[in-house]
Amino acid sequence: MTSVFSMLCYFWCIPGGLLADSIGRYKTIVGFGCIYALGTLLVACAVFDGVQRELGWLFMIGCFGLIALGTGGIKPNISNFGADQIGDATERQRECQKTFFSLLYLSINIGVLISFGFLTNITTGGLPGVIPEADGYSFAYGMGAICMMIAVVLFVAFTRFYQRLPGNGTGPFQQMLWYHWHSVKSGGGWKAAMSAVGFACLPLFFLATLASTLWPESQGPMESQRLYDPCSGSLEPPRSLHGVESGKDILTQIALILGSIACVFLVVANVNCSWVQELEAKEDGSEDEKSSMKRFSAEEAKQTFAAVPVIVVVNLAFNLCYNSMNAAFPSQACQMDLRVGGKQLNGAFFNIADAVVIVVFTLICESCLYPLMARLSGRKSVSLTQKIILGLVIAAASNLAAAVLEIQRRQAPFLCNAGFSECAPGYADDGLHGTRMNDISAFWTFIPFAMVGIAEVLINPCMYCYSYESAPVEVRSLLQAFNLFFQGSVSNAFTAVVAKLAYPNNLNKGHLEYYYYVNAACSVVGIGLYLIVTGCGRESQREQTKDPATE
């Protein structure tokens, strides 16, 4: 369900980016911001103690409907809207934009710091003397709703200070579709057809993954897993570690095949975009048609498609490792020793390490590390390639570190006198049911969380900047949306598939480290693919436009 929520949030980035290029980024941000705020309000109302079961439908509408739609409309536009305020006419402005994207990512993670460092523990434990445990979720979600509504009001209040670029209508997007279709029919060759198949497989991959993830699990084995207590002295009943039904298994395999075809075809076909063919305006064509072709040329279409391989390779290679923070790291921490001062922390609390590292490391990089690296290499600035390769290496190392911790956790004895984990599967506050913690401190998970944070600083702001600079002005939000779509939706779809194949329901009897090994391997392979993609595409990219990936 976590992967489905992330998939939906990033899926809506595509319509959000397209709409922003059509009517303008400011109007899109305001409109979707209001939808986002309404969604958070519905979720906050749905989790009040005593009405959670009755209002479960309201939670689903607010979370999987309005919040997913709202954040999808905002994500591809906030970063671009900020960069628009700086401009990119001069070299100094372009360097300033790079710094802006890093500081934007820093500011996002100040919010993450508050969320995981403070609100997460309140959800399951309350705030002694102030917020009862039963009201923890309503307080946390209520704070989210209040902050989102304030954010929308503040954004609108400063309207007169913004530089608001007008929208370009849907003409450029339509022209891109026409260039692609015309190239498939008239001289584009096998690469044009391969690119078309790759794009067509993406929605099918998304739907197959969604169906596979939502396919109901077999309840019998799952219930026995949650209720078995290794400290009771009773014999452990036999069980399935995954509980995967045949229908789910088939859908998982179909999704994996479709996703692999989409990514491979998009990368191979768009490394060299010479397949894009010029459109010939009909003599009897309308003036609007001729004007649209002048506004968005074949060279601009090539420039847009040429950015696809880097976006696909880097986002998948990094975000498979990154997505471990959404479920695997917290689940692992929930079965380690969570006790602090007589209370238990929530496993998601340790995400605070990621946020702290991002805030601190961003400032260090921008003020000291990047200038020093540039001076030592004799360059004006650190190249995007250097940052990405280093980031992927650290991302792979983070999952390998988590794998080592998981092996150590599973070998550690159970804490039979410490009660059950309050955030692990099967927990009930009657003190009789739940999952036992192992005798290894959960604070060790700070290490993989922090390593992912360092990798984020090196990669995600770079990809925001790369998508902004690589796109023609008319489709900047759309290409940024495509970047975010692969960063969140496609990567989470792959994560959902990998989880079905390698992520056990019973961490004590399965091998979660196998899941981490797959992620780390994908990151290492991604380094090689990135070097191949940038190397093969360098000559064609130079012919079209200056590409920040090959500086």
Reported for the largest beta sheet, the result is: 2 strands, antiparallel
- Poorly predicted ranges (pLDDT <50, ≥5 residues)? 219-226, 239-244
Strands of the widest sheet, in order across it, are: 1-2
In CATH terms, the superfamily is MFS general substrate transporter like domains
Q: Please report the distance between the alpha carbons of the first and last residues.
A: 41 Å
Q: How is this structure best described in words?
A:
Strand 1 and strand 2 form a beta hairpin. 70% of the residues lie in helices and 1% in strands. The chain has one domain: Up-down Bundle (Growth Hormone, Chain: A), CATH 1.20.1250.20. With 551 residues, it is an all-alpha fold. It comes from Durusdinium trenchii. InterPro entries: MFS_trans_sf, POT_fam. It holds the Pfam family PTR2.
What layout of secondary structure does this protein have?
Layout: H1 2-11, H2 13-23, H3 25-46, H4 56-86, H5 91-125, H6 136-157, H7 171-185, H8 189-214, H9 219-227, H10 246-270, H11 287-295, H12 298-306, H13 308-322, H14 328-334, E1 339-340, E2 343-344, H15 352-377, H16 384-411, H17 446-470, H18 476-502, H19 512-544
Antiparallel strand pairs: 1-2
Helix pairs in contact: 1-4, 1-18, 2-3, 2-4, 2-18, 3-4, 3-6, 4-5, 4-18, 5-6, 5-15, 5-17, 7-8, 8-10, 8-18, 10-13, 10-18, 13-16, 13-17, 13-18, 13-19, 15-17, 16-17, 16-19, 17-18, 18-19
